[in-house]
Specification:
3% of the residues lie in helices and 41% in strands. It is mainly β and 125 residues long. A hairpin with a 4-residue loop joins β2 and β3 (57-61).
């Protein structure tokens, strides 16, 4: 499968059908991503899982739990940035802004300067 589906840090070629609300008022109270595990998808399908480590590393995992991407991450407020390991096309740093969380804790994260947006769901560890 060469559709490189790697968490928020990697290249994602899928998009959600539901557009997030990006108004400043809607952004108030947006979730802050921190160390832990997250499912990344469109609300009905999980494309990958991302594990954020306290030391600033991240790992993108496929359905079988195999590491398919790594890099470093940092977050501030409702914004989180991922810099995939390596150089080359699609491996530049990408930053995402998180919309307010739904009652179940999931939220849309949308790429700053891009069109992609994904539903992110914190996972119990």
């Amino acid at each position: 499968m060469r559709r490189m589906i790697a968490g928020l840090g990697g290249v994602m070629l899928f998009g959600c059908g539901e557009a997030p609300d990006t108004s400043e008022q809607a952004m108030a109270g947006s979730p802050v991503m921190g160390p832990g595990s997250y499912a990344v998808g469109d609300g009905t399908t999980v494309y990958s899982r991302t594990r954020l480590e306290e030391d600033g590393r991240y790992f993108d995992l496929d359905e079988a739990g195999k590491i398919v991407g790594t890099g470093i991450w940092n977050g501030k407020g409702d914004t989180v940035c991922f810099d995939p390991a390596g150089d080359g096309e699609g491996l530049e740093e990408r930053c995402w802004r998180n919309d307010p969380a739904d009652p179940d804790g999931s939220f849309f994260s949308r790429r700053i300067g891009g069109m992609e947006h994904y539903r992110v769901t914190p996972l119990d560890e």
